[in-house]
Amino acid sequence: RFSVMVVDHPEIMECDINPLIAGPDGIVSLDSRVLLHGPEVKELPQPAIRPYPYQYSKARDFAGKKVQIRPVLHEDEEKLEKFYQQATWSRGCDTASPVSKGKSSEVDRDHLVKTCFADFDRSIVLVVEGEVNGEKAI
Question: Which residue of 33, 78, 97, 121 could cross-link 50, Cys pair, CB 3.0 to 4.6 Å?
């Protein structure tokens, strides 16, 4: 993941990738160059959006199963939607339910976007991920 590398290494000043070839099997860089900030730079630039908070990710045993408690990722959107569709919502929380009003199986898209594309500087949504029927699920 290129963006993760850049965020995790603020000493990177510039990246030049040319040519970059995209095909059905992935992306390949034929030539690249990475420039680092020099020793004269005392304070490295900080990204506008906070990096993924790995320090809050923990493996745990829960009810005899291994699970991962971690901050939500944008890749979790589909898993979270499936979770919401299968959840039972009591009458007391209908107003807070992420399921669209009047459509029992449709999840509100705005809610998913706000949840999965979080700015970790303002809030952190934690999920519990484990295996269900051989697939990772939330």
Answer: 121
pLDDT at 17 over 60: yes
Q: Around Cβ 81, how many Cβ atoms within 10 Å?
A: 22
Cα–Cα distance between 2 and 114 in angstroms, integer? 24
What mean pLDDT, rounded, does the chain reach?
Answer: 84
- Residue type (1 letter), 71: P
pLDDT of residue 97: 58
Q: What average pLDDT does the segment 5-23 reach?
A: 90
